[in-house]
Design goal:
alpha+beta, 41% helix, 4 helices, 6 strands, six-stranded antiparallel beta sheet, 136 residues
Length: 136
Protein backbone atom coordinates (compact mmCIF):
# COMPACT_ATOMS: atom_id res chain seq x y z
CA UNK A 1 0.00 0.00 0.00
CA UNK A 2 1.32 3.43 -0.95
CA UNK A 3 1.18 6.08 1.74
CA UNK A 4 1.75 9.80 1.41
CA UNK A 5 2.99 12.60 3.58
CA UNK A 6 1.30 15.72 2.29
CA UNK A 7 1.73 19.45 2.71
CA UNK A 8 -1.61 21.17 2.26
CA UNK A 9 -2.09 24.85 1.66
CA UNK A 10 -5.20 26.98 1.66
CA UNK A 11 -5.33 30.54 0.31
CA UNK A 12 -7.66 31.42 3.19
CA UNK A 13 -4.84 30.65 5.64
CA UNK A 14 -1.68 31.66 3.74
CA UNK A 15 0.49 31.73 6.85
CA UNK A 16 -0.06 28.01 7.61
CA UNK A 17 0.52 24.64 6.00
CA UNK A 18 -1.08 21.40 7.14
CA UNK A 19 1.30 18.45 7.21
CA UNK A 20 -0.28 15.03 7.44
CA UNK A 21 -0.36 11.46 6.23
CA UNK A 22 -2.85 9.62 4.03
CA UNK A 23 -3.12 6.50 1.94
CA UNK A 24 -5.36 8.37 -0.52
CA UNK A 25 -4.53 12.06 -0.84
CA UNK A 26 -7.47 12.79 -3.16
CA UNK A 27 -9.89 11.27 -0.65
CA UNK A 28 -8.27 13.23 2.20
CA UNK A 29 -8.57 16.45 0.19
CA UNK A 30 -12.23 15.68 -0.49
CA UNK A 31 -12.84 15.16 3.25
CA UNK A 32 -11.15 18.45 4.15
CA UNK A 33 -12.85 20.36 1.35
CA UNK A 34 -16.32 19.19 2.44
CA UNK A 35 -16.21 21.51 5.43
CA UNK A 36 -18.30 24.63 5.00
CA UNK A 37 -15.97 26.38 7.44
CA UNK A 38 -13.16 26.29 4.86
CA UNK A 39 -14.02 28.58 1.96
CA UNK A 40 -11.33 27.42 -0.49
CA UNK A 41 -9.88 24.07 -1.49
CA UNK A 42 -6.59 22.77 -0.20
CA UNK A 43 -3.79 22.09 -2.64
CA UNK A 44 -0.93 19.77 -1.87
CA UNK A 45 2.62 18.64 -2.27
CA UNK A 46 2.97 14.94 -1.64
CA UNK A 47 5.81 12.58 -0.80
CA UNK A 48 5.43 8.87 -1.27
CA UNK A 49 7.70 7.81 1.56
CA UNK A 50 8.24 5.51 4.48
CA UNK A 51 8.75 8.51 6.77
CA UNK A 52 5.73 8.97 9.00
CA UNK A 53 4.09 12.35 9.48
CA UNK A 54 4.59 11.91 13.25
CA UNK A 55 8.38 11.76 12.71
CA UNK A 56 8.20 14.81 10.47
CA UNK A 57 6.15 16.65 13.13
CA UNK A 58 8.79 15.69 15.70
CA UNK A 59 11.59 17.05 13.50
CA UNK A 60 9.73 20.33 12.93
CA UNK A 61 8.87 20.64 16.62
CA UNK A 62 12.54 20.19 17.54
CA UNK A 63 13.67 22.74 14.94
CA UNK A 64 11.19 25.35 16.16
CA UNK A 65 8.28 24.45 18.46
CA UNK A 66 6.75 27.90 17.87
CA UNK A 67 5.87 26.94 14.28
CA UNK A 68 3.14 24.51 15.34
CA UNK A 69 -0.41 25.73 15.88
CA UNK A 70 -1.75 25.05 19.37
CA UNK A 71 -4.79 26.33 21.22
CA UNK A 72 -6.56 25.98 24.54
CA UNK A 73 -10.00 24.35 24.28
CA UNK A 74 -12.00 23.70 27.45
CA UNK A 75 -8.84 23.95 29.53
CA UNK A 76 -6.95 21.42 27.40
CA UNK A 77 -4.06 22.20 25.09
CA UNK A 78 -4.88 21.09 21.56
CA UNK A 79 -1.91 20.69 19.19
CA UNK A 80 -2.76 20.58 15.49
CA UNK A 81 -1.00 19.55 12.26
CA UNK A 82 -0.74 23.18 11.13
CA UNK A 83 2.60 24.97 10.92
CA UNK A 84 3.35 28.66 10.44
CA UNK A 85 5.62 28.37 7.40
CA UNK A 86 5.55 28.79 3.66
CA UNK A 87 4.71 25.67 1.68
CA UNK A 88 8.03 26.02 -0.13
CA UNK A 89 9.87 25.81 3.20
CA UNK A 90 7.90 22.74 4.26
CA UNK A 91 8.58 21.17 0.86
CA UNK A 92 12.31 21.95 1.20
CA UNK A 93 12.36 20.06 4.50
CA UNK A 94 10.59 17.08 2.91
CA UNK A 95 12.94 17.32 -0.06
CA UNK A 96 16.00 17.19 2.23
CA UNK A 97 14.59 14.20 4.09
CA UNK A 98 13.82 12.48 0.77
CA UNK A 99 17.36 13.11 -0.48
CA UNK A 100 18.90 11.76 2.73
CA UNK A 101 16.78 8.60 2.42
CA UNK A 102 17.22 8.18 -1.35
CA UNK A 103 13.57 8.98 -2.13
CA UNK A 104 14.00 12.13 -4.25
CA UNK A 105 12.37 10.36 -7.20
CA UNK A 106 9.18 10.00 -5.14
CA UNK A 107 8.58 13.71 -4.59
CA UNK A 108 5.54 15.08 -6.43
CA UNK A 109 4.10 18.55 -6.59
CA UNK A 110 0.35 18.71 -7.01
CA UNK A 111 -0.75 20.58 -10.10
CA UNK A 112 -3.49 22.99 -9.09
CA UNK A 113 -6.67 22.77 -11.10
CA UNK A 114 -8.07 25.82 -12.87
CA UNK A 115 -10.70 26.13 -10.12
CA UNK A 116 -8.02 25.97 -7.40
CA UNK A 117 -5.98 28.63 -9.20
CA UNK A 118 -9.08 30.85 -9.47
CA UNK A 119 -9.87 30.29 -5.78
CA UNK A 120 -6.31 31.24 -4.84
CA UNK A 121 -6.49 34.41 -6.96
CA UNK A 122 -9.83 35.33 -5.36
CA UNK A 123 -8.47 34.72 -1.86
CA UNK A 124 -5.46 36.92 -2.61
CA UNK A 125 -7.71 39.70 -3.94
CA UNK A 126 -9.93 39.50 -0.84
CA UNK A 127 -6.85 39.59 1.41
CA UNK A 128 -5.49 42.65 -0.43
CA UNK A 129 -8.85 44.43 -0.03
CA UNK A 130 -8.93 43.50 3.66
CA UNK A 131 -5.38 44.84 4.15
CA UNK A 132 -6.41 48.13 2.49
CA UNK A 133 -9.32 48.46 4.90
CA UNK A 134 -6.98 47.93 7.86
CA UNK A 135 -4.40 50.45 6.63
CA UNK A 136 -4.60 53.97 8.08
Amino acid sequence: MTCYIYILTNPSFPQYVKIGYATDVKQRLAELNRSTAVPFAYVTYELDSALSDKKLHSILDKLNPELRFAEEVDGKRRIREFYAMAPEDAYSILEAIAEINGFSHRLRKWRATTTEQQDEALAQKIDEQHQKCLSP
